[in-house]
Structure formats: structure tokens, C-alpha cells
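Justification of resources, computational component.

The compute hours requested in this renewal are based largely on the per-chain cost of generating structure records like the one below. Each record pairs the submitted sequence with a full C-alpha cell output. That output is archived, and it is also reused by downstream analysis tasks.
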Amino acid sequence: MTQTENGSPVITPVLLGGGSGTRLWPVSRKSYPKQFSQLVGAQSLFQASALRVSGPGFAPPVIVTGDPFRFIVTEQLARIEQAPQAILIEPEGRNTGPAVLAAALWLAQDDPGQLMLVAPSDHVIPDTAAFRAAVATAAPRAQAGDMVTFGIPPTRPETGYGYLELQPGARADAASPQPLAGFVEKPDAARAARMLQDERFLWNAGIFLMRADTAIAAFRTHAPVLHDAVTGALAGARSDLGFTRLDPGAWADVPDISIDYAIMEKADNLVVMPYPHGWSDLGSWDAVWNADGPDAQGNVCSDRAHAIDCADTLLRSEGTGIALVGIGLRDIVAVAMPDAVLVAHKSQAQRVKEAVGALAARGVAQADAFPRVHRPWGWFECLVTGGRFQVKRIVVNPGAALSLQSHHHRAEHWIVVEGTAEVTVDGAVQLVSENQSVYVPLGARHRLHNPGKLPMVLIEVQTGAYLGEDDIIRYEDVYARD
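The structure output for this chain reads:
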């Protein structure tokens, strides 16, 4: 087991970053889920999670995520000057059980006794020092072979969380791990109210501390089919630009199951570390309102949102050109994006997922697709779309390059508005500076590269009979995309 200079164990964070939550739509969508958004504080939830478990006593993190998010993960980590130990790519999301096991198996290859701290990457824990202290307090129990889960003292009769039941005599306000009687599924309102009055119950935060070999043994005992399938997926994994891609053939046999169902509800070596210092899973817009710190009138407003005679209301504008004004509102959530607007009573905030389902059933693109499309080289967004034209803003990161490509159905005009672009068109290379433009004829092989040290911004005008993103033929790509 890896140890620090003072003999305490080094802990490897395992951050789960593959979720596609829809309860914070329209900011969180399948193509860009909430963990990568800046919902509370100066960083994204993912970045804040990585920083929370970094520094002395922590090894570089292991990230488990999906293929669409792999470059978002690396870019966001680079912005906070964090380097991951590994990024494991799931061929498909299979819930938290397989993700945790894959990370445990990966760590056990070098150090079976490695302590791993499993944490979702979309939670808010304001007091970093208190959380690190709680982890350090729980570490000896995990090192001794227990599986430690973290429990939050409930503050309301919440029906959206699972609960942890302490054994008789255990204390929910203790400053050390306590014996656990069992897990309680998400209760109805009546049972949640009863548990709120009973000091033996804590919210299940979904955060776990354990040795890698302890986790593997639990999966082998309680979920052997899952264990064998994930073991095969890691054995057949391949390296791709620094990512570790789990084998899709073996992964197809992996059950979709949470870590709670797979092992936690069946194991007998469980303890719970009470954590009373503030936590939220940001599972609804009501939770975002609460975590963002309402003002004296109970309002939370973003920079471009304004409240007039409002109370207990969340007003959030996510578009640079969108001003949002609320007048005389009470207990309302209003979130404006460039392509979608949500207005809901706070008491109905948990139904946003239901609304997303209804939009998806009608084929509405905004149900899943985010207006800003992230790519390995940067991002783009559509500004205007017509019958035979489309206008985009494209931002290319320093040193990044688009693939060498061509299109069957469209020509493109590029106008550089910030920085300098190195443009290749049918083998001819030229530098295009601010206020200069270049024309890419239909069918021409072309590439765009940013040779500078700052992001490069250009406006692209597409013209043609078909303007879909699938009209791309790639010949070379530094990011190894098909």
C-alpha cells in the first residue's frame, strides 16, 4: 500500500464522470451533463470535485467516464492544472457498480491494497477541509478491510435519496465511523418524515472509501457475473491517446447495476462516516437555489437575471445576449438558455426529468443536444440556420487542429475574428489573421489549426443542400476519431 512520508496511506480518488443527468435541464443535457457545468462557484462541479480530493495524501485521480466526455475531462482537468492517473472509458453507461469495479481492478494491477475514495463528480461539498478531515478519520477502518460509506444528517423528509440506518447505540453525530445496520431505499413521504425524527438515519451520499482488493472481493462474492464481465473488459482494454478503452465486447455482458445493489446492501463489513458539514447532490433546481445562497428575499439571480418584487425564486440566464427579468414571482425557477427556457414552481422541480422525456418523445433536439457542441479541439455553436445556409461560431484551443476533411454537400467561408488560423485547402497552407477570410469549396480537403497561444475564434458560413454534422469525411485526425 502506498504511503505518505508520515506513514499514512495515500488515497486514490475515483471520480465517476459518466452520468447524463437530466434533472437540471436545460443546463444539463445528455450531450453535456451537469458535472461539466459551472452551476455553483468558480469551477465546474467536476473541477471542484477533483480539487477537493487533491494535494497531500491524495494520488492523482482515476476518472471513469464515457467516450463523448473524454476530451471534456482532460480539458477541464488541464484548466485546474490536474493530471489524471488514468481515464477509463466505458463503452456504454452501466451505472456505478461496473464503473467502481473497473477502477478497483485497474488500481489492483499495481497495488491491490490501494485505498480508493469513490465519489460522484457532480456533488457540492462546500467545506473542503472538513471533508478531507473526515476522509482521513475514516481511512484506518478502510485500511483494515472495512468498506466506509459517508452519511449526511438529514435536514428535511427527502424522498429522492436513499438512507443509511445505523445500528442501535451508534451515533449519527459521531466524529468517527459507526456500525451500519443497512441501506434503506428511497422512501415515501410518510416514512421519510419518520426517519427525519429518528437519529439513526442518514442520507446516503454515494461516497465510499475502501481498499481496491476489498472492493474486488465484495464484487466477486456478491456479484460474480458482474465481476467476471468487468474483469474481461479490462483484460481486453486498449490504450487510445492516453485513455484506457474498456473492451466493448466484454462490456456488452456487464449488468446495469448500482454499487449499492451490487455489493453494499449485501456486505457485512460496512461502516458509515457521518458528515455533518454540508453536502448536496444538486439533484434539482431547488437544490441549486439552496446551494447558491439566496439573498435576504430568498432570491438567487445570475449576472444577466434581475428580480423585481420576487421572493424565494431562482432566475438564471445562460446566454450572453439574454436578459431575464422576473416580476412578482414566488417560489419559481426560471432558467433561460439560447435554445430553451424552463419555468417551473420550485415544488415541481423534481419533474424536470419528466419534461425532458416528453420532449424526447416528440423528437425535440433540445431534449438531449446542448447548444454549444464540444469537440477535442474546442467547441462550436450555431448562430443562425436557414434553408441552405448555416452560421457558426467556432473556437479552437491553442495548438489544436480540426481533422483533415471534406464535405459532399457544402462549401464553407471562414472569417477569423480573434487570433490567427493556419488553414490548409487542397494542400495549400496559409495563415489567416483577424478580419481576413478564406473560402473552402465543396469537396476540397481542408484543415484548420490554431498555431497561437490563445483561443482562436472564427465565424463559419456554410452553404449547400445539406448541412448536417454527419457530412464529414475524415482523412487524418490527431484525436483518432473515425
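The chain has a mean pLDDT of 94. The longest strand covers residues 201-211.
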